[in-house]
């Protein structure tokens, strides 16, 4: 009886460990953003110039000192180039941030000048804008971002 219990426990542990390992080594997932679709990226570049560049910069460089709150408690607009943290977030979260705005998404007393664009742009337009941003990243950053998408897809 004891050997059966040990054998069963071993199978459960190995099976669970195998599942966890599979999730940690999931193949990269390109996610929601159509960053390899030239027409959508071109549309996203136009939308970015019209809606985002005034704060985040024409070259996606963000505002100076973007990690330091100003006198009113607001963070400057971060860069969307590889020096920023945009690529640290999975596609679904980026879509929510742009759709709802940072204050609405974070809640509480969090201060942000990032408005929600859900009433201004369609979901497809937001995805195109994010695709444009992603299309400017070096291959290494794109690969890392796709790996982030793969890890978070486990929870969808």
Written description of the protein model:
This protein has 156 residues and is an all-alpha fold. The protein has 7 helices and no strands. Helix 2 crosses helix 6 and helix 4 (91-100) crosses helix 6.
Summarize this structure as a short list of keywords or feature phrases.
156 residues; mainly alpha; 7 helices; globular
Write the layout of secondary structure elements.
Layout: H1 2-24, H2 38-51, H3 53-56, H4 91-100, H5 102-106, H6 123-135, H7 139-153
Helix pairs in contact: 2-6, 4-6
Q: How much of the polypeptide forms β-strand, as a percent range?
A: under 5%
Q: How many separate helices?
A: 7
How does the major sheet shape up? none
Helix content: 40-55%
The strand count comes to 0
Please state the CA-atom Rg, rounded to the nearest Å: 20 Å
Helix-and-strand structural type: mainly alpha
What is the N-to-C succession of helices and strands? Answer: HHHHHHH
The backbone outline, from C-alpha atoms, is: globular
Low-pLDDT runs = 6-23
Mean pLDDT: 86
Instruction: Compute the separation of the termini in Å.
Output: 40 Å
């Amino acid at each position: 009886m004891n050997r059966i219990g040990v054998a069963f426990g071993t199978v459960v542990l190995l099976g669970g460990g195998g599942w966890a390992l599979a999730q940690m080594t999931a193949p990269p997932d390109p996610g929601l953003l159509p960053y390899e679709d030239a027409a959508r990226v071109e549309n996203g570049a136009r939308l970015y110039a019209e809606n985002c560049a005034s704060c985040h910069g024409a070259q996606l460089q963000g505002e100076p000192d973007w990690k330091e709150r100003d006198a009113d408690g607001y963070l400057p607009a971060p860069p969307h180039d590889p020096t920023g943290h945009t690529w640290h977030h999975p596609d679904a979260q980026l879509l929510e941030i742009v759709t709802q705005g940072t204050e609405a998404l974070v809640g509480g007393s969090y201060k942000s000048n990032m408005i929600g664009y859900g009433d201004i742009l369609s979901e497809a337009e937001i995805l195109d804008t994010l695709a444009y941003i992603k299309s400017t990243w070096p291959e290494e950053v794109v690969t890392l971002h796709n790996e982030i998408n793969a890890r978070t897809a486990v929870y969808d």
